Automatic annotation (TrEMBL):
Entry's Gene Ontology BP terms: peptidoglycan biosynthetic process; proteolysis
Enzyme Commission number(s): 2.4.99.28
Domain of life of the source: Bacteria
Protein's name according to its UniProt entry: peptidoglycan glycosyltransferase
GO molecular function: carboxypeptidase activity; penicillin binding; peptidoglycan glycosyltransferase activity
Domain Glycosyl transferase family: residue ranges: 43-204
InterPro entries, alphabetized: Beta-lactam/transpept-like, Glyco_trans_51, Glycosyltr_51/Transpeptidase, Lysozyme-like_dom_sf, PBP_1c, PBP_C, PBP_transglycosylase, PCN-bd_Tpept
GO cellular component, as recorded: outer membrane-bounded periplasmic space
Pathway the protein takes part in: Cell wall biogenesis; peptidoglycan biosynthesis
Signal sequence coordinates: none
Pfam families: BiPBP_C, Transgly, Transpeptidase
Family designation: In the N-terminal section; belongs to the glycosyltransferase 51 family. In the C-terminal section; belongs to the transpeptidase family.
Domain Penicillin-binding C-terminal per the UniProt entry, residue ranges: 671-756
Length: 765
């Protein structure tokens, strides 16, 4: 009874507890890379089945009666015992089951007592496991020379192929190795190794496993030699899996052929960029709808000196302008902006913060869609201020930007221009989430997905988590997303860019670039109906270079990647979230009472809440049409009524030179009352703005004062604290040397119109 209990309990479970390597394969099952086990052995996770050729070879070589014995072979053991007692040759006579027991017991010293223990335990193994499982135990844990353990790792280390592709010659060579692993070392015992393999092949021929031709081809094959390097198509992704899925067989979502093509593209791009001392880049491709990772290039094939080991995809970097589309979509979805509404692009100062456009120029007024397409900074800051910093910050939280984890006030309005840090993983996923939301809306009965901005998935067993969520959008409505992506189809090239006609022939892509302050990070992110592509270019150590811009460095790679992806259709129009409205083509707003013409445009439903055009006004002119008049100074019957497009003075100051078709309002006829018209406006400084001097600065600071006037030909007289200081004509700008203090600035034009405000100059705290 005690013996039975001991027999039942003699096996520990699991039978093998050795650490295994992390093995990463593509969604097609091809090896992408592997990382060695923690004990320094190349031991792949256990195989599910043993290939036919190796199984045939190992059974013929080691245990021909495997399927008929109870765990030990009495005949073989008797022969081995007789040989050991009567000759100097040593034979084991062990079955594969006994060898599995010996491997699980860490190859105890070979004694007769140990043999009895192995035999006893082998019968228990046979009772507890199937023959297929026992064979898998052996194939997964047998030694194959050096630190190579298990069939699968041996196949890759010696032949560079999976076990399923073994030839008869290769299978026979591996079958004889566990019996004498030292035979594998190149230049040593090769003749013995070959003789063993060839005898096994001869036996296979005699047993009709192979024919004569196959036998001759097999014996002519080379023996395994020095272990090969394993494939490493996704080094940074494999390292990530080694941390997150240590010791596991990782069946990833990465597409093998696509990954190889992207590797080639990034290698070529790296050699180009390296000429300008730009050493690092990263590329991520996601399936928009399933959010599966299809390709993962964590860094360029650079050197250790330039941090080739750093996985850039997960590293935090300044976002540049890449968050602007989310602000645009937020405003559209909230019904606070129309796609082509004019927004201010004039010198702006907000609590000492002075945003600048990339080319340091101003447009005066620009359609919101054009401001986004051209990635203008000043309009973006003004729109963020109007929408609300904390409100937008909360939207980013919902978009799953986990790295933007400080308070909204910490980032301030610079948040929209790269004041916060994120990574390619989060950024590409957020763009994919917008596209997925729109696709889901169009493919259902106008429903919205749940968890559209959840993390991407990279394990094949994980499924798409997008589910129906009634009629309520998670963040942006489908109309706002469609208008945003439509805008992003426009190439956001700055002035001076050349040869961008090349990109217009590519398949439709909604894309955005970004460049961080100091030319340290270049971004390009784009989405089609099926794919999201993210590209980052720069130096891992943060060194800036003049060529590190989204347009110059990252965008070309984005379009090269797009070229190798299957064509995607453009997004369908979400009619259920759009309405047709009368739009003023000049202002981009809803048509107002005085808009001379209007056009029909599709806008997000909530866009009907926006205000009507305020830039068209009714003016009354004299009969010649060259002067404005009022009823107090001109006969009512002779007045001409006309609709006139007029911008605020500061907007007009920058807008008019860029738009020859723009006509400023005519002057009033002499003696006519101007009513409450605003003729002049301070460009700098703005009302309530404090001009800050450096903390340790003593003395006077040069301050440039600017004024915009509707009549560019008029003279303006400048007074500071009641004292006349200068006169300007046409270009109304004045430079003064001022020290800390509070001044009263008054300007008057030649017709007696005046404006005044305080100028406060103080030292930074």
């Amino acid at each position: 009874m005690i013996l039975v209990v001991f027999w039942l309990l003699c096996l520990h479970k699991p039978l093998f507890k050795d650490p295994t390597a992390t093995v990463v394969v593509s969604q097609e099952g091809k090896l992408l890379g592997a990382r060695i086990a923690s004990d320094g052995q190349w031991r792949f996770p256990a195989v599910d089945s043993v290939p036919y050729r190796f199984k045939s070879c190992i059974l013929e070589f080691e245990d021909a009666y495997f399927y008929s014995h109870p765990g030990f072979n009495p005949v073989a053991m008797s022969k081995a015992l007789w040989s050991n007692l009567t000759t100097n040759n040593r034979h084991g006579g062990s079955t594969l089951t006994q060898q599995v027991v010996r491997l699980s017991r860490k190859n105890q010293k070979r004694t007769y007592l140990e043999k009895i223990i192995e035999t006893f335990m082998a019968t228990r193994v046979e009772a507890g496991y199937s023959k297929a499982e026992i064979l898998n135990f052996y194939a997964s844990n047998a030694p194959f020379g050096g630190n190579v353990v298990g069939l699968e790792s041996a196949c890759w280390r010696y032949f560079g192929i999976p076990s399923s592709e073994l030839s008869w010659g290769q299978a026979a060579a591996l079958a004889v190795l566990p019996n004498a692993p030292s035979l594998v070392f190149p230049g040593k015992n090769e003749s013995i190794f070959k003789a063993k393999r060839d005898r096994l092949l001869q036996k296979l021929k005699e047993e009709n496993y192979i024919d004569e031709t196959t036998y001759e081809l097999a014996v002519a094959e080379d023996l395994p030699g020095k272990p090969r390097e394993l494939p490493d198509h996704t080094p940074h992704f494999t390292e990530r899996m080694a941390r997150e899925q240590s010791g596991n067989y990782v069946n990833s979502t990465i597409q093998f052929n696509l990954q190889r093509r992207i590797n080639h593209i990034t290698s070529e791009a790296y050699y180009r960029l390296d000429q300008n001392q730009i050493h690092n880049l990263a590329v991520l491709i996601l399936d928009v709808n399933s959010r599966e990772v299809l390709s993962y290039v964590g860094n360029a094939p650079t050197t250790a000196q330039h941090a080739n080991y750093v996985d850039i995809i997960t590293r935090q970097r300044s976002t540049g302008s890449t968050l602007k589309p989310f602000l645009f979509a937020s405003l559209l979805s909230a019904g606070e902006l129309l796609p082509n509404s004019l927004v201010a692009d004039v010198p702006t100062s907000i609590n000492g913060y002075n945003p600048q456009n990339f080319d340091r120029s101003y447009h005066g007024a620009v359609p919101a869609s054009e401001a986004l397409a051209q990635s203008l900074n000043v309009p973006a800051v003004n729109l963020l201020r109007e929408y609300g910093l904390k409100r937008f910050y909360n939207n980013l939280y919902q978009l799953n930007f986990k790295s933007i984890d400080k308070s909204a006030d910490y980032y301030g309005l610079s948040l929209i221009l790269g004041g916060a840090e994120s990574n390619l993983w989060q950024l590409t996923n957020a763009y994919a989430g917008m596209a997925a939301t729109l696709n889901f809306f169009n493919s259902t009965s106008s429903e919205y997905p749940d968890h559209a901005f959840d993390e991407p998935v990279y394990l094949k067993k994980e499924t798409n988590r997008v589910t129906s969520k009634n009629q309520n959008p998670e963040l942006f409505d489908a109309g706002a997303i469609y208008q945003t992506l439509k805008t992003l189809r426009e190439v956001n090239r700055p002035e001076g860019s050349e040869n961008w006609e090349f990109f217009s022939d590519a398949q439709p892509l909604a894309w955005k670039t970004g460049t961080s302050y100091g030319f340290k990070d270049a971004w390009a992110v784009g989405v089609t109906g099926d794919y999201a592509i993210g590209v980052w270019v720069g130096n891992a150590d943060g060194e800036g270079r003049p060529g590190i811009t989204g347009i110059q460095a990252a965008a070309p790679i984005l379009f090269e990647v797009l070229d190798v992806l299957p064509d995607s259709d453009w997004f369908e129009m979400p009619y259920d979230e759009l309405v047709e409205a009368e739009i003023c083509p000049q202002s981009g707003n809803l048509a107002g009472l005085f808009c001379p013409v209007s056009i029909q445009e599709w806008i997000p439903k909530k866009g009907t809440r926006t205000e009507a055009c305020k830039f068209h006004q009714q003016v009354f002119l004299n009969q010649e049409g060259d002067q404005r008049v009022t009823a107090s100074c001109y006969p009512l019957g002779k007045m001409l009524s006309k609709s006139w497009f007029s911008l605020p003075p500061v907007w007009e100051y920058y807008y008019a030179p860029l738009h020859p078709e723009y006509k400023p309002l005519p002057e009033f006829a002499p003696g006519c009352f101007r009513e409450s018209e605003k003729l002049m406006e301070f460009i700098y400084p703005k009302r309530g703005e404090t001009i800050l001097l450096p903390k340790d600065f003593d003395g006077e600071q040069e301050v440039v004062l600017r004024v915009a006037h509707r009549n560019p030909d008029t003279k303006i007289y400048w007074y500071l604290d009641g004292v006349y200081i200068s006169t300007t004509t046409n270009f109304h700008e004045l430079s003064l040397e001022l020290s800390s203090g509070i001044y009263k600035l008054l300007v008057t034009d030649s017709e007696g119109n005046s404006i005044e405000q305080q100028v406060v100059i103080d030292k930074a705290s």
